[in-house]
Design a protein that fits this description.
By secondary structure, the protein is α/β, with parallel strands linked by helices. Helices cover 47% and strands 11% of the residues.
Length: 485
């Protein structure tokens, strides 16, 4: 592939990870005076923190309101249609941030959701044939107004991107043909709102060949994101092994930037609804960290509700287990052990004692006691049924753990597994759990650590509240069938 050089002046200089600032205010195609652009951007920046979402939401609300005024419809009808449209568009991804804005691309989805919203409006408001006809007319006018409003909104966003009012500093990982092609496209098409500000590469390449400096190699990704204003990272065939790149990306889970991936063999790649396309090059938008989603805020509420309710309902079971442990092994019903939780922080995990360790060394270094001859019938039953884990409801209520997440491990084993299994440390991106995706697939006790880490990381990458609920339901089935969770 033949590449042309970019003509945009380099930002900074040098090749080290801290030699070039990833900032800057210029943008190709800027039409405003140099002093006016920063001032205007500063004034409007509070309104642009959430990308195009507020503008698209405002366009839909304005369209419904305008239709109400044009048709002199009741306020109730306007409110019902507006709420239905906003909810349906939000759940359908029509407010998501996008690089390419096209009304024709959105039209099938807009029409389908408008029909559902109109049906809801007629069901709630229409009480007679005449009123139903007026309501249907209002809904039809509202569709036209929303389409006009969205068209204007898309045009305004593209204009603000072209003049540099809305522009995001973009770091490109990889200086090969794909990386250079992406940088060239973004330079010549500022309507995407992305401005190349630097490259990460294992090779030294002159800045005048790229149009932006090489600011480090891919291993510096996390520290560069922490100290810079980078808003977007594009992964374009970096000259590093894929497993290493995966770990580098996972280490950036606290960052607020957006991550895009140029897929392998992108010339043959079909663009789906959840992908982006910039001038013929498809980009896969990697999912935002679970902790950055709105629904994550409800995870803690779910933890408190489920753990609190379970503690109350299972109080007789907890008491029976405590008495049985006391009867079989004497004083010391609760076993306390240091485990490693979120971000590597240690905490004290609580369990019913199933076997009294000889000393602290055995407690910290013994991997599994399932086949220990010292286990009595009570301890063995508690372990098989997972009832020994019930005191961890208190760990959940005080915030040490979550109901669902990767199972916490002892510090010594964490250090060992981190050296042996590349994806193990990435498990600590979220709170530890009483149960998890690995456990409901039978990976508990003396099972393959690599498989457990793979399931735990899959859970983190694909987290949703419904996934938590599914795991809890499967855990309950496992406990009641005596398979454990």
């Amino acid at each position: 592939m033949t590449q042309s050089k970019l003509q945009e002046p380099a930002i900074g200089g040098g090749k080290g990870p801290t030699s070039a600032p990833l900032t800057g205010t210029g943008s190709a195609g800027s039409e405003l005076p140099g002093t006016a652009l920063p001032a205007l951007r500063a004034a409007l920046s509070p309104l642009l923190l959430d990308g195009v979402r507020p503008a698209l939401l405002l366009a839909d609300v304005a369209g419904c309101a305008a239709a109400g005024l044009l048709t002199a419809s009741p306020v109730t009808a306007v409110l019902v249609l507006t709420v239905a449209v906003v909810v349906l568009h939000a759940t359908g991804g029509l407010y998501r941030s996008r690089l390419q804005l096209s009304l024709l691309d959105d039209l099938p989805s807009l029409l389908g959701r408008w029909m559902v919203a109109s049906a809801a409006l007629l069901t709630v408001v229409a009480t007679s044939t005449e009123l139903g006809a007026r309501t249907a007319g209002f809904a039809l006018v509202a569709l036209g107004c929303m389409l006009v409003a969205r068209t204007g909104c898309y045009a305004a966003v593209r204009w603000m991107r072209r003049i540099g009012l809305v522009t995001h500093s973009t770091l490109i990982v990889g200086t090969g043909a794909a990386g250079r092609r992406v940088a060239e496209i973004l330079h010549h098409h500022p309507e995407y709102g992305l401005r190349p500000s630097g490259f990460l590469s294992t090779r030294s390449v002159a800045t005048d060949e790229l149009g932006a400096p090489v600011v480090g190699d891919p291993s510096h990704l996390s520290e560069i994101l922490q100290r810079s204003e980078t808003r977007v990272v594009v992964l374009a065939y970096a000259q590093v092994p894929d497993p290493v790149l995966v770990n580098l990306i996972r280490a950036c889970h606290r960052s607020t930037c957006e991550l895009f991936l140029v897929p392998r063999l992108y010339e043959l790649h079909q663009v789906s609804d959840d992908m982006e396309m910039i001038w013929g090059v498809p980009l896969v938008r990697l999912r935002r960290s679970a902790g950055r989603s709105v629904s994550w805020q409800f995870k803690r509420l779910l933890d408190v509700l489920v753990a609190g309710t379970a503690a109350l309902l299972l109080a007789p079971v907890l008491a029976a287990c405590a008495l049985a442990v006391r009867w079989e092994g004497g004083p010391g019903v609760i076993f306390r052990q240091t485990r490693v939780g979120m971000d590597g922080r240690p905490f004290e995990l609580l369990k019913f004692r199933s076997l009294a360790p000889v000393d602290e060394h055995e407690s910290g270094t013994r991997w599994n006691i399932a086949n220990d001859d010292r286990l009595g019938p009570v301890g063995r039953f508690l372990r098989v049924s997972s009832l020994d884990e019930l005191p961890q409801l208190w760990n959940i209520l005080r915030g040490d753990m979550s109901m669902v997440g990767p199972r916490p491990e002892r510090p010594q084993f964490v250090d060992q597994f981190a050296l042996r299994y590349p994806g193990y440390i990435a498990r600590h991106r979220v709170p530890s759990g009483l149960t998890g995706l690995a456990q409901v697939h039978g990976l508990r006790g003396d099972t393959d650590i690599d498989d457990r880490a793979r399931f735990d990381n899959f859970y983190i990458e694909n987290w949703s509240l419904w996934l938590d609920i599914k795991i809890l339901l499967r855990t309950a089935v496992s406990v009641f069938t005596a398979r454990g969770a």
